[in-house]
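Researcher: Re-running this chain for the archive, since the previous output was lost when a drive failed. Same request as before.
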Amino acid sequence: MQIAIHNPNMVTVRLKRIEARAFTLLEVLLALLILAMVLAVVHAIFHGAITLRNQADQKFEESIPLQHAVSLIKRDFANITVPGGTLSGMFQTTLTTGSSSTTAAHAGQQVGPVIYTASGTLSDTDTWSEMRKVTYYLVPSTNLGSGLDLVRSTVRNLLPVTQDDYSDQRLLGGVDNVTFQYYNGTQWMDTWDSTATSSTSSTTNNLPTGVRIQIAMAAETGKMAPDPIELVVPISVQISTNSASTTGGSQ
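Model: Regenerated structure tokens:
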């Protein structure tokens, strides 16, 4: 079979068009370079997102013990009982000489006063009342990390015993110091004694109207110490007296 080529120039034009549709080596290398740059940008964005998520998860996990500790401290002081009752002692930041205390020797530094609180949870299987004697301590770190451990020590049996049977609950690690201040209605005070008569009241066994707690965290290696955590707990339980007014014969 013979093929007649009427126009040889047309075949040449078609061949040139086919050659024009091919990529040169330089164009291929340039396309690969652009693709590599796009992949590098995508990888950087993806890696940054993963790092940010991991940091957020770490911060959240670290904040859980702190939130739990703050919640327990607030609940203890919010449910504090009137001092001097049958199952409650005095509210004193410094024990007086000769005071009868059955507090067991505790391995740690006591911070804040011994408080009597009704923050215990009642249940059908709980043989104890909701009354608790609570003390906070700073003890050496159990994981040999920076700072100290904040421990909540509770006593459930408030009947007279030779020595308190306490149980410890580790609340928070990496603590540098914990300070307490007490509001008397006009100013914050560093100490409090419920057995003393205040200048604004003729009654004893009084409680402060508010307690301010500051938790200073220890600085990590090579980093600055964070700002202290501060919480203020109002105290609504107070001793009240029914005194008759001498003017007008009304109370």
